[in-house]
Inverse folding.
């Protein structure tokens, strides 16, 4: 199930609060005040989600790798090359953990 962004909560809350006030002004129905407060709650939830997402985004910034030697770059490249294997029959590239070719079904290991 997809997560609902905070801005959607804010927009829905504003729409519900505004519409409930609009109907309340036209009809003098006191039951619409409940919808107004529901809209305010949705706005608060949306703002909370937006703020927490911004805080979490700042904390998850990866540190930049600044001083990587050429030797370490070569080691990383060889590790990356070893993770990919090719099928002998059709030439399809696969992860090293694959046991069978996903295209032709040939056993890889």
């Amino acid at each position: 199930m997809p997560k609902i962004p905070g801005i959607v909560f804010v927009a829905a809350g504003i729409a519900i609060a505004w519409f409930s006030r609009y109907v309340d002004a036209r009809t003098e129905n006191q039951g619409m005040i409940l919808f107004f407060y529901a809209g305010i709650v949705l706005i608060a939830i949306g703002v909370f989600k937006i703020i927490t997402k911004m805080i979490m985004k700042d904390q998850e910034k990866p540190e930049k790798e600044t001083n990587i030697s050429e030797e370490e770059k070569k080691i990383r490249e060889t590790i990356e090359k070893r993770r990919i294997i090719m099928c002998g029959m059709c030439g399809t590239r696969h992860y090293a953990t694959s046991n069978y070719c996903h295209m032709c079904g040939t056993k890889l290991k």
Helices lie at 6-27, 32-59, 70-82. The chain has a mean pLDDT of 83. The chain has two domains: 6-59, 78-109. The beta strands are 84-86, 93-95.
